[in-house]
Amino acid sequence: MEHTAIVWFRNDLRLHDNEALTEAIQKAQRILPVYVFDTRIFQGKTPFGFNKTENFRTKFIIESVIDLRENLRSKGSDLIIRVGLPEEEVFTLAKRVKSSWVYCNRERTSEEVKVQDTLEKNLWKIGQELRYTRGKMLLHTADLPFPVCQVPDVFTNFRKEVEGITPIRQPLDTPNVIPNIVFDKDRGVVPALADFGKSEVICSHIENQKMIGGERQAISQLNYYLFEFRLIDNYKETRNALLGWDFSSKLSVWLSTGCVSPKYVYHKIKEYEQQWGKNDSTYWLYFELLWRDFFRLMGKKYECKIFQQEGMREADISGNTDFLLFNNWKNGTTGVPLIDANMRQLMATGFMSNRGRQNVASFLVKDLNVNWVMGAEYFESMLIDYDPCSNYCNWNYIAGVGNDPREDRYFNILSQSKRYDPHGDFLRYWVPELRDLPDAYIHQPEMMDIGLQVKYNVIIGKNYPNAIINTSKWIS
Ligand SMILES: Cc1cc2nc3c(=O)[nH]c(=O)nc-3n(C[C@H](O)[C@H](O)[C@H](O)COP(=O)(O)OP(=O)(O)OC[C@H]3O[C@@H](n4cnc5c(N)ncnc54)[C@H](O)[C@@H]3O)c2cc1C
Predict the structure, then answer these.
(1) Most buried one in 300, 309, 319, 398, CB count within 10 A?
(2) DSSP 344
(3) CB of 59 closer than 8 Å to CB of 350
(4) Are 320 and 290 in contact (CB under 8 A)?
(5) Which class does domain 1-135 fall in?
(6) What is the pLDDT of residues 231-270, one digit of tens each?
(7) Mutation test of ligand 1: which of 57, 268, 390, 411 has the most ligand atoms closer than 8 Å to its C-beta?
(8) 136-171+209-303 CATH fold
(9) Which listed CATH number (1.10.3210.10, 1.20.1530.20, 3.40.630.30, 1.10.579.10) goes with 308-476?
(10) Residues 83-129: pLDDT tens digits?
(11) Which of 213, 299, 288 minimizes the C-alpha distance to 256?
């Protein structure tokens, strides 16, 4: 008997190392690839009222879907596109083509689980089955030396238990041909940003010029970072920088949408090491990918807790929901240059460096004493690379409700600013009001007397805000 399988693409918008696609091709004679733009994700709100997905990530996903469709077409297949609820749209298609199975990458976070569970139950009603595959992590859960419920809570312990013991499997090949199905009518069109009520993205900054969705762009950025410019060779030294494109891999945007598989990245790093030799930096890129796996495992282990204010530790934590304070943070008008520069970058581009994220998160939680969930939801809304586990577990970590073994971690924003942007280049780029300040005042404009303020065209409280907290606590 011949079988038809639906491959429901989710955050795995690629043909290489795609377990769902590979397994479907092995089992079925006809394949129907499908992507559904979930209206809850593209038009819904977070509990604190932010758009669930802002225009930056929406644009990136639209581009990724266009690229996926073209790649599927080049293999003799196509991508059926729908806008709506996946549990209904995929179900309708399953009835229409009388498929035997729907294959999809299994998600582990609450909202995504709800969708896949509902679809599964719908399919049972018509005698069909949802078959789950994996593909988000470097490591396979089945290869781990411990069950998920016993994953060590401290990253270093986790790393020591898996490193050198748990193999990182070879990525699966891109299929040469994908068996087609006759499905001529109603293949669906790719929606535009305006269809979700979103404005166009203005690509004035490098982040938006280079962060273009799709598997081909992902592979191209990986090659750029590794083989073309060998930037990986100095990754450990440059990774904490704030301004520019080359200081870190920028792969997160493609990893979070699944345009590139982490196993593929890992094996490319190995290939690079064979060709050019290993060093601390080549190791460190893998080390950071392991953090990503660690947080995904924490999401699996602690489930809904990662989204709650008490966090995975179920800590007794306070935190106000003062929108006045919060909006100063969000709009980059706190009067603290490092915070303002990073938050303006996020608002203008949908991206922020890792060092920036740590500082603004710490400032919101530890200096403004605002409920960390508001910050996490705002990041969810804005970030192109938003990933539920990476985002919420990092926020848990910084808010002190996660798995940071140091309970008193606190970022002195002034020293961070001086250390990671010694000449203020990043500050001047994102806070043009401060452009004329000499290095001596760029990190602390409030230190200038009125004479200097006039001299450098920065009148504190007039054309640059008064700091909303007392910054003298940072001066030792
Ligand atoms: C408060 C906060 C929220 C964050 N939210 C997200 C998020 O929603 N999505 C996301 O992908 N990353 C998130 N991160 C992690 C990190 O900031 C980004 O992955 C990184 O800045 C992306 O830039 P890059 O690809 O150039 O990173 P690189 O420095 O080149 O790192 C390589 C890869 O390793 C992974 N990685 C690096 N650092 C981390 C980390 N701390 N946690 C998890 N994975 C990491 C990413 O996949 C990244 O692409 C968050 C960090 C903080 C502090």
Answers:
(1) 398
(2) H
(3) no
(4) no
(5) alpha beta
(6) 999 999 999 999 999 999 999 999 999 999 999 999 999 9
(7) 390
(8) 1.25.40
(9) 1.10.579.10
(10) 999 999 999 999 999 999 999 999 999 999 999 999 999 999 999 99
(11) 213
